[in-house]
C-alpha cells in the first residue's frame, strides 16, 4: 500500500485575505502599510472602521471626543449596550483591535476637538483621511488641514435613506469649501457665541437616519479609499450619491469655486522640529531663535488661526474677567463674571462681542517685559494642537513653518 506523504500544500487558502487578493489589481501590502485617519467614530465611523480592519488596512488613527449614547447603539456595529457612557474613540479602537486579522495591526485614538486640537502634522503623516462626520464645522476644518497637508480625504454624509461620498484630492479643486452656501457657513458657527466662545448645548448631530445608510456609505467610502491606496483611478472632485427611497444612484461633478481660498493654501516648506506641544513657550522660543532656525528675536505667530484670550469685560458689569485661555476652551456663560452669574440676571440680549484683550504673537524679549507669566505656559495651554505646524516670523518679517514632530510618537 502506498504511503501518503502529507506535504504542506500552501494554498492561498491559508491567507485571511485570499478572496480579495484574487482581484487582479489588489495590493494587500499597500493596505497593510497604509495609515488612515478616521475622523468621527459614530454611526458612519463604526462601519468605516469595521471595513478597514477586515480588509487588512494596517495602521489606523481614530479621533472623536464624544461619549457613546443610547441612541447611537442602533447604528454602531462596534458598540454594545453596556458601552453607554464610554468614550467612542477608545471603545472603537479596542473593538477593531480585536477584529483585525494581522498581528502587526496598529490602532491609536485621539480624544479631542478635531477643529481646534488636531494639528496639521497629523494630516501630513497619513495616506488618506476618511471623514465620518455629522457637522459642517468639522468638515471645514478637516478640509482645510487636508489641503494644507496635501492629503486626500473622502467626506461621507447621510440623511434619512440617502447618502453621499465626496472625494477631494489636494491641490485639485473642487474642495469641500468651494460649494458652501451662506446658510451652511452660518450653521458652521452654531457651536459658538458672538464672543467666539463655546456654547454648552447645541443641537448638532441629530439627523434622521438609519443604520443601513451608514453601512452603505461606510462601504462606499472605504471602497474608494482602497482603490486609491492600490493606485487605481478614483472619482476626484466627484460626488457619489445614492437615495434609498427611490433607488437613484448617480455620480456628479462637484462645482469648483475660483474664489475659494481653502484649496489654494499650502506651505512651501515645513521644517521638522523634535519638539512637542508640552514644551514651555520660553523653551520653544529659545529653540526657534537659534541661528539655524529663525534667528534671534523670532516670534511665534498664530496668524489669526486661533485666539488666546487674556481678559475680557463682563457682559453685565464690565468688570475685567481674567481667562488666560484660548477662546475654544472658554464657555459662553463665562462671559458673565462670577458675581453677575450668581445674581442670575445676565444680559443675554446684547449680541455684540464684549471687549477682550487677546494675544496672537509671542516674542521672548517682549513677553519678558510685558507678560512674563505666559512664558511658562506650554504650547498646548496656549491652544496649539497636537503635532501642529506653527508659523514663526524672524526679525525681517520672513515666515518659517515648523512641525512639532515630537508629538508624532503620541499618535502613531
Ligand atoms: Zn475650494
Ligand atoms: Zn459682572
UniProtKB/TrEMBL annotation:
One of its GO terms (cellular component) is cytoplasm. One of its GO terms (biological process) is protein modification by small protein conjugation. Residues 27-261 form the THIF-type NAD/FAD binding fold domain. Gene3D superfamilies: NAD(P)-binding Rossmann-like Domain. GO terms for molecular function: nucleotidyltransferase activity; thiosulfate-cyanide sulfurtransferase activity; ubiquitin-like modifier activating enzyme activity. Pfam families: ThiF. InterPro entries: ThiF/MoeB/HesA, ThiF_NAD_FAD-bd, Ubiquitin-activating_enz. PANTHER family: ADENYLYLTRANSFERASE AND SULFURTRANSFERASE MOCS3, UBIQUITIN-ACTIVATING ENZYME E1. This is Dinucleotide-utilizing enzyme possibly involved in molybdopterin or thiamin biosynthesis. It comes from Bernardetia litoralis (strain ATCC 23117 / DSM 6794 / NBRC 15988 / NCIMB 1366 / Fx l1 / Sio-4) (Flexibacter litoralis). The lineage of its organism: Bacteria, Pseudomonadati, Bacteroidota, Cytophagia, Cytophagales.
Amino acid at each position: 500500500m502506498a504511503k501518503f506523504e502529507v506535504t504542506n500544500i500552501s494554498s492561498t487558502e491559508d491567507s485571511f485575505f485570499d478572496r480579495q487578493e484574487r482581484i487582479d489589481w489588489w495590493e494587500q501590502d499597500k493596505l497593510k502599510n497604509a495609515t488612515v485617519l478616521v475622523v468621527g467614530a459614530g454611526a458612519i465611523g463604526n462601519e468605516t472602521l469595521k471595513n478597514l480592519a477586515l480588509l487588512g488596512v494596517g495602521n489606523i488613527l481614530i479621533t472623536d471626543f464624544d461619549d457613546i449614547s443610547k441612541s447611537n447603539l442602533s447604528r454602531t456595529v462596534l458598540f454594545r449596550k453596556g458601552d453607554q457612557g464610554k468614550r467612542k474613540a477608545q471603545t472603537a479602537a479596542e473593538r477593531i483591535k480585536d477584529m483585525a486579522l494581522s498581528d502587526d495591526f496598529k490602532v491609536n485614538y485621539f480624544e479631542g476637538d478635531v477643529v481646534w486640537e488636531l494639528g496639521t502634522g497629523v494630516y501630513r503623516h497619513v495616506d488618506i483621511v476618511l471623514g465620518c462626520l455629522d457637522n459642517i464645522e468639522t468638515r471645514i476644518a478637516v478640509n482645510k488641514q487636508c489641503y494644507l497637508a496635501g492629503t486626500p480625504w473622502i467626506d461621507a454624509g447621510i440623511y434619512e435613506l440617502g447618502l453621499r461620498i465626496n472625494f477631494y484630492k489636494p491641490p485639485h479643486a473642487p474642495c469641500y469649501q468651494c460649494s458652501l452656501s451662506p446658510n451652511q457657513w452660518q450653521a458652521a458657527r452654531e457651536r459658538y457665541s458672538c464672543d467666539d466662545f463655546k456654547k454648552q448645548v447645541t443641537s448638532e448631530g441629530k439627523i434622521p437616519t438609519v443604520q443601513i445608510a451608514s453601512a452603505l456609505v461606510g462601504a462606499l467610502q472605504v471602497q474608494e479609499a482602497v482603490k486609491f491606496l492600490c493606485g487605481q483611478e478614483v472619482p476626484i472632485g466627484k460626488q457619489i450619491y445614492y437615495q434609498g427611497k427611490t433607488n437613484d444612484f448617480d455620480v456628479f461633478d462637484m462645482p469648483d469655486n475660483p474664489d475659494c481660498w481653502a484649496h489654494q493654501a499650502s506651505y512651501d516648506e515645513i521644517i521638522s522640529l523634535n519638539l512637542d506641544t508640552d514644551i514651555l513657550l520660553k523653551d520653544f522660543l529659545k529653540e526657534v531663535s537659534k541661528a539655524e532656525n529663525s534667528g534671534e528675536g523670532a516670534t511665534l505667530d498664530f496668524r489669526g488661526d486661533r485666539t488666546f484670550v487674556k481678559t475680557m469685560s463682563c457682559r453685565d458689569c464690565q468688570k475685567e474677567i481674567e481667562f488666560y485661555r484660548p477662546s475654544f476652551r472658554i464657555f459662553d456663560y463665562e462671559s458673565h463674571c462670577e458675581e453677575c452669574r450668581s445674581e442670575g440676571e445676565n444680559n443675554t440680549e446684547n449680541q455684540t462681542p464684549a471687549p477682550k484683550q487677546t494675544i496672537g504673537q509671542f516674542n521672548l524679549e517682549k513677553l519678558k517685559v510685558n507678560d512674563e507669566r505666559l512664558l511658562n505656559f506650554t504650547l498646548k495651554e496656549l491652544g496649539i494642537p497636537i503635532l501642529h505646524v506653527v508659523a514663526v516670523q524672524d526679525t525681517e518679517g520672513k515666515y518659517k513653518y515648523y512641525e512639532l514632530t515630537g508629538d508624532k510618537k503620541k499618535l502613531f
